[in-house]
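ugh ok fine here u go
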Amino acid sequence: MVKTVSDIYQAKYLAKKRKKIFLCLFLWLVLFLAISAGLVYLLFFSKLFYVKEVSIANQSFIPNQEIRQAIDELLAQKRFFVSGFSNLIFVESGKIQSLIVNNFPQAENVTVEKEYPHTVKVSLDGKTALGVWCFGAGDQDKCFYFDKNGVAFETSADSDGPLLLRIEDEKGRFEKLGQAVAGKELLAFVLSIRPELEKVKIDIKKITVPADEDFRVDTQTSEGWEIYFSARDDLKSQVNSLDVFLSQKISPEKRSQLQYIDVRIPNRVYYK
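structure:
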């Protein structure tokens, strides 16, 4: 078949067009690869957003050095197969916050912010002890400060001071700091005893959860005698029975001679 001039011209035009399209695609590919390489270098190897400062506003007794060391170890972990990766863009504030909360139970109100281009800002407060919770009979090495949520956050020495409520738990078991010292129901009952007794002008020294009886909670008053409560019954009703009994049956002179008052059985009071 004989090609005409028009066919030859059209073939050359199409070949030239294909070459131009290929060149254009090649140039776009080179540009894409260059941009990608630049981004990889910027994010993984350059120090444009490298974390150079960790600012810690610490209102607790936790040493700043310990907090900084824990954060540095987290930032030094491998990410995307790159060792020592510490780019502020990929720093996860929530992960640092969880790290501090989990590693330092004494801390609360922990906040973590990123301040570009190089700073991580950490702020935290220290927990306030609501009382001292001791596990085991007379084992002072197992006493811990606990917070308003009933979470043990620091080891405590023996304390019978009037400011901190003391609980001796002969039945419970302790595993680690950061855990609740007791179940929700028992904890709520125990923490309600002092304020309820204050309403009837009874001051207490300590509370004991004995090992030999279920649901029994003993409370030692500042006068020396004890009150036996039932943790499965309404506390207010038991305190009311106690108050009525003291006002009607026991004179102020005889209170100092009491050994205990048992209000665990509804509408009945036993004493010695």
